[in-house]
Amino acid sequence: MGDNHAETVRLLWGPHTKPSRGPRPTLDLDRIARAGIEIADAEGLAGVSMQRVAAQLGVTKMALYRYVPGKAELVALMVEAAIGPYPAQDPQPSGWRGQLADWARCLFAAFQRHPWTLDATIGPRVMGPAELGWMERAVSALDGTGLGGAERMDAVVLLVGHVRGITQQARAAGPAGTPEAELSGILADLMRAQGERFPALAAAFASAEQTGGRDQAWEFGLQRILDGLAVLIDQREH
Amino acid sequence: MGDNHAETVRLLWGPHTKPSRGPRPTLDLDRIARAGIEIADAEGLAGVSMQRVAAQLGVTKMALYRYVPGKAELVALMVEAAIGPYPAQDPQPSGWRGQLADWARCLFAAFQRHPWTLDATIGPRVMGPAELGWMERAVSALDGTGLGGAERMDAVVLLVGHVRGITQQARAAGPAGTPEAELSGILADLMRAQGERFPALAAAFASAEQTGGRDQAWEFGLQRILDGLAVLIDQREH
DNA sequence: ATTAATCGTGTCCATCGGACACAGTTAACG
DNA sequence: CGTTAACTGTGTCCGATGGACACGATTAAT
């Protein structure tokens, strides 16, 4: 369990000094990260092992340890590369609300492109420049509102929590045919069998099934959060 | 990777038929779950292994497989036992807002008592009766508001997302002296060094440090969510 | 040409989750 | 009161994992 934080910082933030002597490195951090991402996208984070990544790159697993101190650091690199820099929008919305909504939707899309990032970003960890860039964008969207520094960060944390929550439940629904889809059926069966023990839940479930379209949870929560922020911001402006 | 969902349902929802013949079982699911929880509370979920749990109970690891099909199911039992049934409140608040706030605070407290539940509840999974009981309570708190079934569930998901988000960042702060506390310092150093690249973030950080009291992120987000729900509910009532 | 740094690799280890066979224990049935 | 069938706990074995370490090959600076 060598989670050397200092080493992780060096890996994520550089500098990456080129070796002066010795054979040319056949790999580099970027290729390694991309190989890991490729595997994680296809088979989930559980499918990512040193040997698996090494095989993808055509080398032995021990070759990887020349570049990365351990698996934890590899995953950190993968997250940083997978999330990438915040995509610059051509027409930047003017108000804080539009900017934050855009930002959240971008983040949500990024999480859905790489669902394993959920598993990889559990618990305390070191963030890289790309990830901090995202944070910067969100916090700066709230500049000019009457919110204090702590409040601006709290608001961003709130949004990130929602993105993560929805990503998780979206993964549970999953595309039809996958083993994840089986879960929906199991839950439905459970609700039918235990309906009397959970009347409100069963009613809500039935009503939701009848109304048809799910997948509104994302927009619902996003608008609630933005509404809640608007209430506070309006009240600060007066 | 035998994640037999049907078996998990049977374990969590019963029935647990007593064996008619053969030696008395020396263990039961409850003791096993509690042993696992004890370890996870002390050393995190990573410290929970079959051998470790078995040692805690004074048996061999293979003895556990008589009760639990695999580690995934053991973790499911641990989560169910750790979260426990929703604690009945003596004076139940009258309005939906008070009820939801109470509920969220209880859930937050439960997550903080067992931080590893964050790691254990990633991704699609089968929920047990205790967990569904919590959901039931939250959904029923929204009965009588003009919200539809899907909306009531979306609102609960939104709250859970916030609880999880804050639990995660609370764990990052951690008590002083722990290796987690080191992260705050690293992040602070990073902000100082890269301040120009992330001006808004650095400003918010500095302002937050100056204002002193952090730990408001929880209440901040909770009130924003409730405010946002109130906006919708008010508008539905008219 | 020599040397020192850096490379990729092979070998070794502890630990993990899990499969399986085996012997001991116990309750039901004749 | 035997017999038997079911069930228990355990020991042994396996493949895969993350990682330590030493080795020989390669290359740039001297």
Structural class of chain A: mainly alpha
Tell me the number of helical segments of chain A per DSSP (H or I, 4 or more residues long). 12
Q: Helical percent range of chain A?
A: 55-70%
- Summed over residues and divided by their number, the pLDDT of chain A gives a mean of 92
Quaternary state of the chains: homodimer
Gyration radius of chain A, to the nearest Å?
Answer: 22 Å
- At the fourth level of CATH, the homologous superfamily of the largest domain in chain A is Tetracycline Repressor, domain 2
Topology of chain A as a string of helices (H) and strands (E) = HHHHHHHHHHHH
| Most extensive chain-chain interface | A-B, 79 and 80 residues
Strand content of chain A: under 5%
What's the domain count of chain A?
A: 2
* Poorly predicted segments of chain A: none
CATH class of the largest domain in chain A: Mainly Alpha
CATH architecture of the largest domain in chain A: Orthogonal Bundle
Stated plainly, the CATH topology of the largest domain in chain A is called: Tetracycline Repressor, domain 2
